[in-house]
């Protein structure tokens, strides 16, 4: 099954092993599913991914049915408290081998990697090496990155990945922020950072940029749904090629009848 580019516009969500609705293929509206999380398999750079919500065969069938229906499924690596180091080529090779093993034994073919590495140093040289190696093995393999919008180090990494041609979508996550009290402050912050920082960091190519939104209830500075729509509509007027949005995470959206997904689908129209 061929790997397709991430849709334009993208509507993505995180499916978590501890709370994601099952099966993956039954998630409505979303065209890109991010499996969270593949976590460290030791100190070697490898990662491991498992789930106990379906049998192995049902889970593989589920993911491949999702892909056959035209949606993308990416493996999100890292997550809070699960930093792993890619400080060497050896670690990078261990990462590549472990991703292949996950596809062979847990998920079946996937469409790419979401770099959700938190809590430690990022190594763009090795991330570029990994992307190039996986694309050589799996043509069209996609790579996404959801950085903290205020983090200049992550911005530098995103620039390097993009310049190397190994980043498909960079979607700063506008939640878990501090110092923003009102919806208007949150809206202004998101619009300003995208215009002044993140779209320029992607060489001015808005098609490489998405936005990440937390869904209530969510810890930290989470926008209301109406504020989210304001951010999107304001930015897309200036940048019609803006790639899309993702939500953290799908079980929260399901609990509201998929209000985020349906609202953003209308906003994308």
Can you walk through the features of this model?
The structure is a single chain. Strand 5 (112-116), helix 3 (124-137) and strand 6 (142-145) form a beta-alpha-beta unit. The protein is globular, with a radius of gyration of 17 Å. It has 8 helices and 9 strands. It has 269 residues and is an alpha/beta fold. Strands 1, 2, 3, 4, 5, 6, 7, 8 and 9 form a 9-stranded mixed β-sheet that branches. 40% of the residues lie in helices and 17% in strands. The model has no long low-confidence stretch (mean pLDDT 95). Helix 2 crosses helix 3 (124-137), helix 5 (183-201) packs parallel to helix 6 (225-238) and helix 6 (225-238) runs parallel beside helix 8 (259-268).
Set down the secondary structure blueprint.
Layout: E1 10-16, E2 32-40, E3 47-48, H1 56-68, E4 72-78, H2 89-107, E5 112-116, H3 124-137, E6 142-145, H4 152-163, E7 169-170, H5 183-201, E8 210-214, H6 225-238, E9 244-248, H7 250-255, H8 259-268
């Amino acid at each position: 099954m061929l790997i397709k580019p991430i849709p334009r516009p993208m509507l993505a969500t995180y499916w978590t092993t501890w709370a994601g609705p099952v099966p993956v293929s039954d998630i409505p509206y979303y065209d890109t599913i991010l499996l969270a999380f593949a976590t460290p398999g030791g100190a070697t750079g490898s990662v491991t991914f498992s789930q106990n919500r379906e049998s192995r065969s049902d889970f593989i069938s589920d993911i491949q049915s999702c892909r056959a229906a035209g949606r993308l499924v990416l493996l999100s690596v890292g997550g809070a408290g699960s930093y792993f180091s890619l400080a060497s080529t050896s670690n990078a090779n261990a990462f590549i081998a472990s991703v292949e093993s996950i596809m062979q034994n847990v998920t079946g073919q996937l469409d790419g990697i979401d770099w959700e590495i938190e809590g430690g140093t990022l190594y763009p040289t090795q991330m570029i090496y990994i992307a190039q190696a996986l694309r050589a093995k799996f043509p069209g393999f996609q790579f996404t990155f959801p950085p903290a919008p205020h983090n200049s180090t992550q911005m530098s990494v995103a620039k390097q990945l993009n310049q190397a041609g190994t980043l498909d979508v960079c979607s700063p996550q506008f939640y878990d922020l501090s110092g923003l009290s009102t919806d208007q402050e949150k809206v202004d912050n998101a619009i300003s950072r995208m215009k002044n920082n993140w779209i320029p960091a992607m060489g001015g190519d808005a098609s490489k940029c998405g936005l990440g939104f937390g869904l209530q209830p969510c810890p930290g500075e989470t926008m209301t749904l109406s504020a989210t729509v304001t951010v999107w509509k304001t930015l897309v007027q200036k940048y019609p090629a803006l790639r899309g949005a993702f939500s953290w995470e799908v079980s929260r959206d399901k609990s509201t009848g998929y209000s985020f997904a349906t609202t953003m689908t209308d906003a994308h129209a």
